[in-house]
Amino acid sequence: MVSLSKATHLFFWAGVAFARAAPKPTPGPDMADVEKRATSCTFTAASQVSKSASLCSTITISAITVPSATTLDLTGLADDTKVVFKGTTTFDYAEWDGPLISVAGTGITVEGASGHVINGNGAAWWDGDGSNGGVTKPKFFYAHKMYDSVIAGLNIKNTPVQCFSIDNSESLVIENVIIDNSDGDTDELGHNTDAFDIGDSTYITIKNPTVYNQDDCVAINSGTYITFTGGTCSGGHGLSIGSVGGRSDNTVENVYIEGVTVTDSTNGVRVKTVYDATGTVYNVTYKDITLSGISDYGIVVEQDYENGSPTGTPTNGVTISDLVLNGITGTVDSSCVEVYILCGDGSCTDWTYENIDISGGTTSDDCENVPEYVSC
Fold it and tell me: pTM, whole model, 2 decimals?
């Protein structure tokens, strides 16, 4: 899986070298350890998982109810472990930060059995404030320090706030995942239910997700060689880069987002950078994105974010160069601004803007420092 993931990225980024020193020869595995792990384990209690997961080559999480203020801890796994969620996994209520699930390791495969559901019990926490206030809500799934790994076919429902936090990971593939937080639309109680938040990671591939939520479908805050292709994003804030700036890592480079349908969302395509911060957004491509039912902005690039909100005054400390907007089409609401560009002085350069056909909305008179050949 490692070579396939990297080969896919290198296809997109032809000519970009990614080399490592050859590893030193290592002794073969201890056969006693191999025999000890050559087993399949089925766990029906969260306490069993944290105690014995490292001893198993295949783990089945079978209809577990995780106790309150407890992480389903899958961070101590041996290399090449397979984890299967079976039946309904759910979580008891407590006010805490989480995460509800945490997975780490090398060569890990996480998948769902037929008919399974991982139910975050989000309605118990939802109060309309998300992570901005109200009760303290746990994040859902930490994919931190996952290397050469795959998460596939999970059916996730009702996360309290953000779903996947992807951080310090490399060569991770997430595919055919369903994240359904549509119940949070009731009375607008679900909030900050981002599907995929990515930071400090390299060679991340997300393929064919189905997302119903109330925040970003994907938010790439830092990282390189990231692809997001296929699938549907509905109900949230669209396909986002950033906010970039004000973190320990403020670089987003070599991102490819293609073939996604965005419906009933506030934004379609969005790039946002932090006011008076520094950083780099380079070689980001949005291609063949289909929009419908967009309420605020079809395409929006803003360099004025401060404390999570736009100020209307852009700064140029974060550069946005070699941005490709190609084949972004569809319809937006009548009050929606079709394209809004608010760049700092000289910080948005070398953009490609072609095959854009967004209709049904309005134009803006407030665009600033729009790059050459871009229509606003």
Answer: 0.92
Which residue in the block uniquely carries the two structure tokens 């009702």?
158
Q: Which of 73, 197, 215, 216 is catalytic?
A: 215
3-state secondary structure of 31: helix
Tens digits of residue pLDDT in 339-376: 999 999 999 999 999 999 999 999 999 999 999 999 99
- Between strands 297-306 and 309-310, the pairing is antiparallel
| 304 a catalytic residue | no
Residue 116 annotated in active site:
no
C-alpha 338/C-alpha 376 separation (Å) is 8
| Rounded-to-integer distance, Cα 271 and Cα 273, Å | 7
Of 9, 144, 191, 237, the catalytic one is: 237
pLDDT band at 30 (very low <50, low <70, confident <90, very high): very low
Q: Is the dihedral of CA 314, 320, 324, 328 positive or negative?
A: negative
**Structure tokens, 367:** 């665009």
Q: 192: closest CA among 129, 246, 142, 135?
A: 129
Q: What 3-state class would DSSP assign to 12?
A: helix
DSSP assignments along 204-256, one per residue: EEEES-EEE-SS-SEEE-SEEEEEEES-EEESS--EEEEEESSSS--EEEEEE
